[in-house]
Amino acid sequence: MRSPLFDLTGKVAVITGSSRGLGLASARGMAEQGARVVISGRKVEACQAAAAEIVAAGGEALAVPCNIGRKDELQRLVDAAVGQWGQIDIVMANAAIHPWVGSLLDLKEETFNKFMQVNVQSSIWLAQMTVPAMVQRGYGRFIVVASIVGVLGDPISGTYGLTKAADMQFVRNMAMEFASQGVTANCIAPGTFKTEMARSQWEDPAMVAWYNGRNPSKRFGEVEELAGLAVLLASPSGGYINGQTIAVDGGHTISFR
After folding, report:
1. SS3 breakdown of the chain: % helix, strand, coil, rounded to 5?
2. Does the residue 256 lie in any domain?
3. Is the pLDDT assigned to residue 2 strictly greater than 90?
4. Is the entire prediction scored with pTM above 0.90?
5. In the chain, how long is the greatest CA-to-CA distance?
């Protein structure tokens, strides 16, 4: 049963990277609260399967494949959502890349540019394509999935962390500009979840031992444990949460270990 606190009936949500993992769990959660969700990812078949799953469960979903690093594909994503349902009320910028790890001294310019275009520029493009109409209607929710790596130093994944720190500043800037017009902007910063992207970590006994020693919860996250926060931030109940980065990490970032 839908809660009136989190009711999204009539709202349209575009969620990038939602054919699996955290994005799909968030799409399911929003659909269960009545939102019409747009499933997006790079693979057509995966998007269609995810959308079909939501429809089979009684929700409304549209599959629109998209590479977020290409502005023209993002515009097609936005146009498809508006063409199908007339508006976009919620954007969840979840998709990102992590194609390289290593020392800052070895970072190639083209690698840095790719990181920035996909992980940061794409969110700016999405805001430019959707926020003006949200402002006109006086309601909008812009959610960016960052990472706890954006608040922690790291000698080998620091470039990814740099882009996630940029996400956090991006939502602060968005909040300052649009909060008084009914549009909120916030970040979710996950720790390590049991997703396909993180499989190499949660299947590695040495990594599991290290993580459990550092993390107060002594386990990795399950994707459903992030979906509730996504629903909250998308809903009317989240209207006074603005410009924030909320860690969903089992306490990893507060541990002194």
Report:
1. 50, 15, 35
2. no
3. no
4. yes
5. 53
